[in-house]
Amino acid sequence: MSKISRRHFLGFGAGAAGLAACATPSGSNTQLTDSRAPYNGAVSFDHGVASGDPLSDRVIVWSRVTPADEDTQSPIPVTVRICTDPSMSILAAEAQLDTSAARDFTLKADMEGLKPDTEYFYQFTAHTTAGDVTSPVARTRTAAASGKPPVKFAVVSCSNFPFGYFNVYDAISQRGDLDAVIHLGDYIYEYGVDGYGGQTGQEIGRNHEPPMEIVTLGDYRMRHAQYKADPMLQAAHAVAPWICTWDDHESANNSYRTGAENHQPETEGNWSDRKQAAIQAYLEWMPVRDPQAGRTSGGIYRAFDFGETASVFCLESRLTGRSDEIAWGAELAGTAPDAIPAKAREVMARVGDDSRTMLGRVQEDWLSQGLQSSVKKGKAWQVLANQVIMAKVSPPNLMETLTDEQKAAQSGYVAQMIPFSQLGLPFNLDAWDGFPAARERLYGSAAASGARLVTLTGDTHTSWANTLHDASGSLRGVEFGCTSVTSPGLGAYVQDVPDLGDQFAAANADVDWYKVDGHGYTLVTLTGDEVTSEYIEVSGILDPSYTTQSVASFRTSRTDEGMTALERA
Predict the structure, then answer these.
(1) Please, is 428 exposed, middle or buried when counting C-beta atoms within 10 Å of its C-beta (0-12, 13-18, 19+)?
(2) What element of type H or E holds 469?
(3) pLDDT band, very low/low/confident/very high, at 34 (cuts 50, 70, 90)
(4) Helices (H), 339-421
(5) Residue 83 Cα to chain centre, angstroms
(6) C-alpha dihedral sign at 28, 33, 36, 42
(7) Which of 218, 244, 256, 234 is nearest to 169 (CA)?
(8) Angle at 383 (CA atoms; ends 382, 389), nearest 5 degrees
(9) d(Cα 551, Cα 534) in Å, to the nearest integer?
(10) Is the pLDDT of residue 1 over 90?
(11) Is residue 84 part of a domain?
């Protein structure tokens, strides 16, 4: 990689994404003629630049122009250039875009005509009557079209702004070896200053904007703008293309197709309206391709090939096909202790209903066909960019594994988990454990195609290394669960149980390793023969100074029959 300082990347700030912002691309090295009238006003780039969704011949580039007059109704003409050198002198492609208040002044272009497996640099220029205003320069790269080159991803999730500084993003920005950053969701959080993370935000001066829980399109736009203004996040976007999908907090906690745990229609209006507002803001502000024609607005599931090394299937498991929530808290509320076992059996019968879907049948069929195609084309690995834990996980019998002192020290939902753990049932029904029939259908598709599944997972704010088995006990793949950027994991709520992760691993055949605390990212490296995961953590998030350390590594290898169970690397 050409050496570019972080200061050069960050420049003076830049901006957000837009709904397919009227791009006129050129794949030649001849500059486009621009006859557009310049904007009569002051502008700046305050939210960084970003790229995403890399293919072998194109990549999405993104930014936002911030007009000094936010009420302006005039369009702002912008040119984006992509070059092979950081000085921006060797042009590879160019596009002319216009943005306005209709898309919150965001910009997004699919830059075509690029070479495979190539490093590029890009920059936006806004044209005003006072002269051109330029964004920072950032790095991106295209995917390989053939061969089996090593592929390296930084995998992240769960970046709640008030809970701490984005030191994890800053650590990623120091790397020059990434093919992509994969963000598995909870890029923003919907809560107000009195919600989840609000107390810590007050203590360290990182309060959410707007201060209330976000519900409307304007609210979601403002929250995205706040996150994108963070310099550490801008720096991470500037070093590599991102492959992003949402989880629940980009809309509302524990969301599903027809509602969410954190949506109250009587005070927050129609769920469909809120969902559409969240989707529109996400598509405006993120470097992702808009859904293909014929899909719903939330159908952002899509696939990427990195030569013959891997196919990456980026899933959407919240807003288009997920069945209604079943949650133990609501199901067992008011149930007498002696009636809980019978009630739990009734709940699990509903959980196991064949009609329940995580992805929806349309996406299930798309994934099944994609796995078959990937294997037939000789791709070594089939990677799922997946939001929630796929492994079968039940808590250990904490009534037996904890001492009396440890039991007495617990409170909140951890205290509730202790008697529940005697049932030997999955505790987190918001994960694939709440959709076992859908999980078996996915495993069946993988088996039928001969796929070697590598599942990347976020959501839990903790680190996992899992070997996945179907209902018959056959190995179906591996799972690397990344911890959070800032959001607290189980370890933040459990008192004085230092071996809790080991207890979970001992109690579950799918779980090889579980770490209940820490913040960081997972570095996943794929070659034609093996996949390794390295779990890298930062020393803290309550101030912007930190160090990094590698806390564990795991490996799976390709075999003629499939792949091996995980082992320590």
Answers:
(1) middle
(2) strand 463-469
(3) confident
(4) 340-351, 361-376, 398-401, 404-409, 412-420
(5) 28
(6) positive
(7) 234
(8) 130
(9) 8
(10) no
(11) yes
Report the number of distinct structural domains present in the chain: 1
Q: What CATH number is attached to the domain comprising 55?
A: 2.60.40.380
Which letter does DSSP use for residue 314 in this model?
Answer: E
Cβ atoms 286, 314 nearer than 8 A? no
Reading the block at residue 438, the tokens are 């859908």
Domain, as residue range, for 71: 1-142
Q: How far apart are CA 384 and CA 432, in angstroms?
A: 13
Q: Which residues pair with 52 in a beta bridge?
A: 60, 242
CA distances for 351 relative to 9, 257, 431, 433, angstroms: 48, 16, 11, 8
In a domain, 35, yes or no: yes
Q: What is the pLDDT of residues 402-411, one digit of tens each?
A: 999 999 999 9
Say whether 528 sits in a helix, a strand or coil: coil
Residue-level pLDDT at 16? 31
Mean pLDDT score of the chain, rounded to an integer?
Answer: 94
Structure tokens at 254: 């524990």
Q: Which two tokens stand for residue 557?
A: 């290898």
Is the distance from CB of 285 to CB of 229 less than 8 angstroms? no
Residue identified by tokens 């199901």 is: 331
Show the CA angle centred on residue 557, arms to residues 452 and 247, nearest 5°: 50
Distance of alpha carbon 559 from alpha carbon 561, whole angstroms: 5
Angle at 49 between CA 44 and CA 50, to 5 degrees: 160
DSSP letter for each residue of 15-71: -B--SS---EEE-SSSPPP--PPPBSS-EE--S--EEE---SS-EEEEEE-EESSTT
Contact 1, 176 (CB under 8 A): yes
Q: How far apart are CA 525 and CA 531, in angstroms?
A: 6
Measured CA to CA, the distance from residue 322 to residue 256 in angstroms comes to: 5
562 φψ region: left (φ > 0), alpha (ψ -120 to 50), beta (else)? left
What's the pLDDT score for residue 13?
30
As a whole number of angstroms, the distance between CA 457 and CA 483 comes to: 9
Beta strand pairing status for 242-244 and 180-183?
parallel
Band the pLDDT of 29: cuts 50, 70, 90.
Answer: low
- Structure-block tokens of residue 273: 């309206």
Q: Does 247 fall in a domain?
A: no
For the chain, give the number of residues.
569
What is the pLDDT at residue 11?
Answer: 33
In a domain, 463, yes or no: no
Beta bridge partners of 16: 63
Determine how β-strand 180-183 pairs with β-strand 151-156. Answer: parallel
The DSSP line for 115-159 is PTT-EEEEEEEEEETTEEEE---EEEEPPPSSS---EEEEEE---
